[in-house]
Design goal:
CATH architecture of the largest domain: 3-Layer(aba) Sandwich
Shape: globular
CATH class of the largest domain: Alpha Beta
Strand content: 5-15%
Order of helices and strands: HHHEEHHHHHHHEHHHEEEEEHEHEHH
Number of domains: 3
Helix content: 40-55%
CATH topology of the largest domain: Trna Endonuclease, Chain: A, domain 1
Largest sheet: 6 strands, mixed
Radius of gyration: 26 Å
Number of helices: 17
Strand order of the largest sheet: 3-10-9-8-7-4
Length: about 375
């Protein structure tokens, strides 16, 4: 293969970037067009079904005929059309003036792709770019699973920012990310800038769902289940752990060897985060938070910064991951440390099962309903 010059390589990079950006813009415009179409159809269907203009089974009949006249048409099943109606009905609350979107004149649906984006906002700081960046499927799941408007805006923004798949977004909603956004920390005082602190606070949650860890099975196999056993479970499912933990994390190692003045230390898990440009230590604890954990973590971070951190990297960050913690108490203690640290809790598959009704309870409820 012929080697090209640096100038030619830069030209390729510039053209490639332009192509990818253009493809992204086209995809964004196509998604905006589709959402505007679905909103318009939803408005049309809502006006005719809610007021009794159409009889029972009309949506089914219309969809059947659409598929006969447009063979291969996808995305217009009766359930999909009803979701379009929901999409319109749930978002029409933000309208303050008449819109040409979906106006019904002589049975013609007028689709104005600009009008939806021009609507004034009633609440929050929804960026219309985020709104149009996520698919109709994402929107439908948010509307079906989240009732609070502020929460809906939150999940729209997070999904757009992080490019979540539908499955990942559903997991975050199930986990109730909206109410688990900020863990007790000292990032504001310990990190070099407000920007770094805000990035760190948005990166870490106060509680993590580790569904891949099955403590019942561990207890059956091990007489004394300690942090090392939990650590091994996480290492064996490191991809799942990183997916649960957040974005831009790279696994460096477990029981990472540190040494200072002949004294050896072994942090449980060590990661590198590209967004934060920092090493991240995760210390695992099977029980409740204890004040001594902060001192241990502070020692790890100081040695990491002295011996491992690169000159261009930000200060290393430490996270204690324990079973439960008094947040107010943690917030009070953690402010006394100079190294950036936070304390989060976790739930396992066993914890989730405990809050679910048993098979017998479900059967009893079903019998009562019948």
């Amino acid at each position: 293969m012929k080697e090209i010059s640096i100038e030619m390589r830069d030209a390729v990079k510039a053209i490639k970037t332009a192509i990818l950006q253009s493809q992204y813009n086209v995809a964004q415009l196509a998604n905006k067009e589709l959402l505007s179409l679905y909103y318009s159809i939803g408005k049309y269907v809502s006006a005719n079904t809610r007021k009794g203009t159409w009889g029972k089974g009309a949506v089914q009949s219309i969809c059947d005929q659409l598929h006969r006249e447009l063979p291969g048409l996808r995305g217009f099943s009766p359930s999909a059309v009803k979701r379009m109606r929901t999409f319109y009905e749930q978002w029409q609350m933000l309208e303050f003036r008449p819109l040409p979107v979906g106006e019904i004149e002589d049975n013609v649906i007028a689709v104005d792709t600009q009008a939806l984006a021009k609507r004034p906002l009633a609440v929050g700081d929804l960026d219309w770019k985020d709104f149009f960046a996520i698919s109709f499927t994402h929107h439908s799941e948010i509307l079906a699973k989240v009732s609070n408007l502020e929460e809906r805006l939150f999940y729209i923004r997070k999904t757009a920012e992080n490019h979540w798949s539908k499955e990942r977004m559903i997991d975050e909603i199930k986990f109730d990310l909206y109410h688990h956004q900020s863990l007790p920390n000292n990032f504001t005082q310990a990190l070099p800038s407000k920007t770094s602190a805000l990035k760190a606070m948005s990166m870490f949650k106060d509680n993590y769902l580790l569904e891949f860890v099955n403590m019942e099975e561990l207890n059956a196999r091990e007489k004394d289940v300690d942090e090392r056993v939990l650590e091994q479970e996480i290492v064996q499912h490191i991809k799942d752990f990183i997916m649960a933990f957040g974005k831009d994390f790279a696994f460096v190692g477990n029981q990472y060897h540190l040494e200072k003045f002949g004294v050896e230390q072994f942090p449980d898990l060590l990661f590198y985060n590209r967004e934060l440009a920092a090493l991240v230590v995760v210390e695992l604890k099977m029980g409740s938070f204890k004040p001594a954990y902060l001192g241990q973590l502070s020692a790890y971070l100081r040695i990491l910064d002295d011996e491992v951190r690169k000159p261009f990297e930000n200060p290393s960050i430490g996270i204690i991951l324990c079973k439960d913690a008094n947040q107010s108490f943690v917030e009070y203690l953690i402010q006394g440390y100079d190294s950036p640290m936070g304390v989060a809790t976790y739930k396992t598959a066993d914890d989730v099962r405990k809050v679910l009704p048993s098979e017998e309870e479900l059967r009893r409820v079903m019998d009562e309903e019948i």
